[in-house]
Sequence to fold (394 residues):
Amino acid sequence: MDEHLSAIIYAVGLASFANEYQSQDVFEQARRQYVHALQLTNTALRSSTEATKDSTLLAVMLLSLYETITSTTQKPLTSWTDHIKGATVLVTLRGRQQLRSSLGLQMFKQMTDNIIVSCIQREVNVPTEITDLRSYAFKNIVGNSPSWRFSDVTVRFASFCASVKDGSLSDVDAIIAAAMKIDSDMIEWTTSLPSTWEYETIFMDTEPVLVYDGHYHLYGNHRISQMWNSCRMGRIFLNRIISGQILQRISSVPIGQFSSDYTTLLQLSASTISQMSSEICASVPQYTECPATFLIKPSELRSSAYSWMLSKERQPSEVDGQAPPIGAAGGYFLLWPLFIVGGLPDSPDSLRLWIVNRLKFIGKSMRIPQAILAAELLERKEDIEDWLHTCHVF
Fold:
């Protein structure tokens, strides 16, 4: 194993241990190891042969992971953007050759998904070099993959945001129509998923602290949950754009001359945002605390994919009757969706309070400091910069 890769693996391991056991001494060791790994990786990036190796890109990804799991403050978006710009250059330099191995393809998918998220946030187009490589991979390698198909929708979302920002798409009706088309594409993605991507909905009228609005979901794994929540966040953003454009039109039209179609659409957007928010909350219990799961017989589940929920490792504790969390990865990927929903101006206080409590639980039980910070920001109802996207890499 290349030295720069082994160094950052060691640093991430130490940082994870330090978080788990709240050890400042181990954290200091992790920090020193991170600095060493960063120096080695920068040296590798200056080499034309080392820069394009899988080990170097993996080291870059792990450096970002280290910064995510050790962050205890709200980092500015510019820091994330700088990382993304560097990753774009590196992925482009690696070219089609990186798509020939399973590891190379997985890293390419992970990095380009992060690039797309950054482009949506900055309201810029995804670089042509990236979209060309993605198109080649989609047509020649990955086939009809649900995650790749969704990424294609998000590329169009980024292009839409860029067009609105640069003024090439400025007419209110045109903006609404374009946003509705992408929203429709996201709905179509959910209806064309294979059965293994479907989720079970479990209804219950107890445990309101653990379960919001009387129901929760069971997914085959946390990656599937993550993709569903990505779609839900996308639909929330799009419907906020739609409602914002309608409200802008209302302000410029005399009373009595406003189309009833817009009123209907405004109501539909509000309903969609509320539904997506509720569904994001429903994805939480499976990865935090979910006592009702253990009252379900395996025969009552539509898919055996959820049988792990009834495994010995997920049985309730004899002490408090609760199931143990499945691990930090299951907590990290929930932070950004929960933060987005909790920060929506129209979210009811009951929903925001539930999210704050769940974030605090994730922070304390899974040793994820960013969750505590997110909860505190939501409690203060501050104007907050969207920053938890970095946790969505898990």
